[in-house]
Design goal:
alpha/beta; Rossmann fold; 2 domains; two-stranded antiparallel sheet; 11 strands; about 25% helix; about 15% strand; binds S-adenosylmethionine
Length: about 350
């Protein structure tokens, strides 16, 4: 038996594997969520199977019925989240089958979550994938009447936003968030501006009066916007190399590391956690309820948060371990079929 992580003790089921900070479980998330205590998770970041037109290998709900299915998970996510917690969902759009007409299912889902559950929309984000292939080919390449759909929606939801006492007492309103943890490098024009100190101060058409000093404070970077740009084209990551090496199919619908990375850093505090007493455990817990290849768990591990991964397909859980093991450790596992991997190597970030 490999070492257990502190996070695994939140559940009664046995984990498939552990790292030093997290544990992966095989099963239906609706059941695994029920095992978690109330207020035990600080952040849920996930990418559900999309309601696509075609049955994909990893199993999609059809467009009809998808929202009813998804809504079965939300009250349980709400229950296990801390009041300061967040639920981040990356969800792809779709054209209606056989027509150049977009489905509005993901907007209807968002409206239903906000109206029918206790979750609120903190902010919407967009993942722009510049390497996205034209799709659907019929409308984009053949008839040339639509353009490439290169953006997917990301909804950042939270159980408590309008906490009046927090506003009255001048506390930081929920959810836990800090854009200073995700500052980006200044663009060249911003650097020029900071150097020259020449700002267009004065009244804007929006009515805001921009103070001369407003942009003059040089921080360590610029505040990001709600567009996350990331290609999904890396082919030489440790995970993909190990899948090829051990002749295992890689997960077909991974999201890029940058998505969980941004939200883990933005929505949970960084170590050290000496003074962190907001959680059930001694550091934040990040959960992915549709974990696939466990991109989220790997990101959380590298950033020293606890993590939990729930995935219903055994084969994806099995290969997701590659993210945490060296080639030698995987060989040892395959050859001897032992469940004890010993200590985990500290592998670099991986897509
Ligand atoms: C889009 S993929 C997630 C990919 C993941 N973000 C990654 O980077 O590898 C969705 C995953 O949800 C899993 N899934 C679908 N229904 C599930 C359920 N009820 N409980 C747990 N996992 C489920 C699928 O098997 C699939 O692996």
């Amino acid at each position: 038996m490999s070492r257990e992580s502190a996070a695994s003790e939140l559940l009664s089921s046995e984990a498939e594997y552990h790292s030093s900070l997290g544990s992966a479980f095989q099963g239906d998330s609706r059941e695994l969520l029920e095992e978690l205590p109330d207020n035990s998770v600080d952040l849920v970041v996930t990418s559900p199977p999309f309601a696509l037109q075609h049955e994909k290998e990893y199993g999609n709900e059809g467009q009809d019925g998808y929202n009813d299915w998804f809504l079965e998970f939300v009250p349980e996510v709400r229950r296990v989240l801390q009041p300061h917690g967040s639920f981040v969902i990356e969800i792809g759009g779709a054209f209606k089958r056989g027509w150049p007409e977009r489905s509005t299912y993901q907007f209807e889902l968002l409206t239903r979550i906000v109206n029918e559950t206790e979750m609120k929309l903190a902010q919407d984000f967009y993942w722009y994938n510049p390497a996205k292939l034209p799709n659907p080919i019929e409308w984009v390449n053949v008839r040339k009447i639509r353009v490439t759909d290169a953006v997917t929606h990301i909804w950042w939801l939270s159980p408590e936003i309008n906490k009046e006492s927090a506003v009255e007492e001048g506390e930081q309103p929920h959810p836990e968030a800090n854009n200073q943890r995700v500052l980006q490098e200044y663009s060249d024009s911003q650097k020029d501006l900071l150097e020259s100190g020449e700002f267009n101060d004065g009244k804007r058409s929006s009515g805001w009066d921009i103070d001369e000093e407003a942009f003059a404070n040089e921080n360590e970077g610029s505040i990001p916007d709600n567009l996350i740009e990331a290609s999904n084209t890396a082919s030489n990551t440790h995970y993909l190399k190990m899948c090829r090496e051990f002749d295992v199919d890689a997960h077909p619908a991974r999201f890029p590391r940058q998505i969980p990375e941004f939200f883990v850093e933005y929505l949970t505090p960084d170590p050290p956690y000496d003074e962190w007493d907001a959680g059930r455990l001694d550091r934040p817990v990040v959960l992915d309820i549709f974990a696939g290849s466990n991109t989220t768990g790997k990101v959380a591990e590298v950033r020293e948060r606890y993590w939990l991964a729930f995935e219903k397909e055994q084969k994806y859980v099995d290969s997701s371990q590659f993210r945490f093991l060296t080639e030698e450790e995987i060989t040892h596992r395959f050859n001897d079929d032992q469940s004890d991997f010993g200590d985990f190597a500290t592998l670099e970030d991986d897509d």
